Amino acid sequence: xxxxxxxxxxxxxxxxxxxxxxxxxxxxxxxxxxxxxxxxxxxxxxxxxxxxxxxxxxxxxxxxxxxxxxxxxxxxxxxxxxxxxxxxxxxxxxxxxxxxxxxxxxxxxxxxxxxxxxxxxxxxxxxxxxxxxxxxxxxxxxxxxxxxxxxxxxxxxxxxxxxxxxxxxxxxxxxxxxxxxxxxxxxxxxxxxxxxxxxxxxxxxxxxxxxxxxxxxxxxxxxxxxxxxxxxxxxxxxxxxxxxxxxxxxxxxxxxxxxxxxxxxxxxxxxxxxxxxxxxxxxxxxxxxxxxxxxxxxxxxxxxxxxxxxxxxxxxxxxxxxxxxxxxxxxxxxxxxxxxxxxxxxxxxxxxxxxxxxxxxxxxxxxxxxxxxxxxxxxxxxxxxxxxxxxxxxxxxxxxxxxxxxxxxxxxxxxxxxxxxxxxxxxxxxxxxxxxxxxxx
Length: 441
Description:
Layout: H1 13-47, H2 51-79, H3 81-98, H4 105-119, H5 122-133, H6 136-168, H7 170-191, H8 203-209, H9 229-232, H10 236-267, H11 275-301, H12 306-321, H13 327-333, H14 335-363, H15 366-401, H16 405-430
Helix pairs in contact: 1-3, 1-5, 1-6, 1-7, 1-10, 2-3, 2-4, 2-15, 3-4, 3-5, 3-7, 5-6, 5-15, 6-7, 6-11, 6-14, 10-14, 10-15, 10-16, 11-12, 11-14, 12-14, 12-16, 13-14, 15-16
């Protein structure tokens, strides 16, 4: 991945290398979780699944992911980014490979649960890494770049997984994709260290990384005691992040787990035929992820305060999601119009994600970033479970049973279109202006 232009390219070498590593990890993370949605047609035949069975397996992943988020942020804050990130990646790679040896529907639920709890470590570790290595003005851009890895993983999956399944069997799709995580582990241990301990980091780049830190102690290795979840939950800023994630994360889960099924049921696409439209959606998402980081950076460069730039960007992004409500009507004209509008909404989600994650490091000191990110990630997972259990599972099974599945997707697209605007309003109410949390107060 090429380095983006830095505000000062002469001192950007190491932090953008670190960003590339986090990008790679996020790519692997999403590649591993996306595999099952593309193997669904094969697994439905072999294990005789219906929409309810698949929804139950999806719930198992989300529940474990949510519970994992509750604790993994604390673990990463305690172990540090180097060991915490490595442990999480090692375990989720084992879990991904383990799917190949499952022989029952219950076994898939167990395998997905193990994958969920271990994959929960990626974003708390990634956001903490970004907070450690980037000044505030560059964090949304860095987050957008590494977060685009989720789209790259989702692009690689449809281009490779069906082909692997067709040629050597669905089991090998899990084994090959899962093994990529071990390649990342080698690079991580070779290249990564926190700035204060990085042997080759120049003083100029170290000073630039910490150029907006008021407390000089934050630029060194943190020795302060960690903050309890209960204390973090007393802050309105925590709840702003929590509600934002609760309302919008489920939309991304919907795209990830149900997009291939939508294309199959609405347009008859199967196997490798689904690869191009799914990949197109995630190509647009990658553009949105990086663009979502660029928008507030551009506002900041033009004199807007960082937090206002972030919130203004998020409002514009929320408005870009709404046209998804017209996806099916446009799809009646041409399937690719539906793919385009879904792709724009997915791109807007990734732009939103790049900014909502960055609000945590805007509002909280570095020693609490992974913990707050974990709490919000748990909320996002619980939102996904609620959407699947209360809406998708009941609604999709019902409408499928009466041969009107298109109505279920129509309702879901309206939910997707309104979620971000509601989230923005609630976040603005809870955190109307920038206020850096003083955990010692």
